[in-house]
Amino acid sequence: MRLWRALRIGTVAVLFSAATVSAVFATDFSTRLKEADAVRSADPARFASLLTELNADAESANAQEKFQLDYLNAYALAYRGDYGQAIEQGKALMQSAADVALRFRAGALIVNSFAATRQFSEGLQYLDSMLALLDQIKDPELRHQGIGVAALLYNQVGQYDLGRHYSEMILAEEPAARAQCYANHLRLEALYHLDQLPRDDATIRRAIDQCVTNNELLLANLLRGQLARKWAAENRYAEAVDYLKASLPEVEATRYPRLIGEIHSLLAQYEYHLGHAELAEEHARQAIAQSSGIAFSLPLVLAYKTLYDTAIERGDTAAALEQYRNYAEADKAYLDATKARELAVQLAKHETLQKTQTIELLNRQNRVLQLEQKVSKQAATNTQLVLALVLLLLASLAFWAYRIKRVQIELKRLAETDALTGLSNRGH
Fold this sequence. Notes:
The chain is mostly helical. It starts with a helix and ends in a 13-residue tail after the last helix. The chain has a domain at 21-137: Serine Threonine Protein Phosphatase 5, Tetratricopeptide repeat (Alpha Horseshoe), CATH 1.25.40. The chain has 16 helices and no strands.
């Protein structure tokens, strides 16, 4: 008996220990998942490390956590430039995830990826689907993420007024630090293209400092690129080069190909303008290495243009011809994408107009149906009133016929009866 009791106690202890370990693993997975989500843009190296761990321990996750892990994997694909796979995984999440917030995030990732690949028609379609969920999203940070993607896409398609509108919508709602940093970047980008940037540098510098303070180095360096463009437009090329070179180690630490390619492309242009052909070539080649896998890349176009210009300058005809071909091919692809962008905007406007007209037509049809229902209801009411009046008239006629008959009978009785004796005075 003692042996049996000891075995039972031991079994319970083992089961309790297993349950405790399982709970600890589950809690640990959830904690790491939240941390990975929090540092995904601020600390790319930590994010990559956590994602590797989470994928290795994915079996310990529940269904919702697996969906969240799928989202982070899709985000990682987009971050390193594999937008096609990111879009496919995002679509799968939008179709299968039960959580509306996760579907909203997946939609934002898809739109962001379509913006990066300049597939604007698809991006605008998914933007409509994503914004349709916006009223159901109560988390301000998540709302701002989606609105920010709308601002990004509208900037990408050249609708800078809308880009400014959506970015200022975020800033008006007192957003969290990351959302404020992102919205400032998008707003300043829109203002740059609208030729409405403030003349001084203070606004951009404040936005950069705010991003740096919150360790949002990717966004900070995108803003630095914006400031460098402003300086180049003001013929301050030397300042722009020194400024970008100082931040280059930080740029490369982000591991973000689009940003790295963009900064090297800017350096290539500005170094060439300053007469530093060798440095210009070096930066141009690095820009090409980072941008070659990104379709329709403007940094790629400008990098090939720089290589062509430097080859012409040193009299290398063969190299110049090769780089011109590369430049022409990249430029054509970019121009085709630009035309596609304009077409996508026109199609989106046409679809919106069609939807508006369809809604107006449906509203008119509804109003007609409502009027018909009112007329039918009124006709039914009128019929009931007429019937009631007829019944009342018949009832009145019957009543008065009855009363008249009673009066006739009473008068006849009085006429045939002697008033004094009460005897009938009518002869038989």
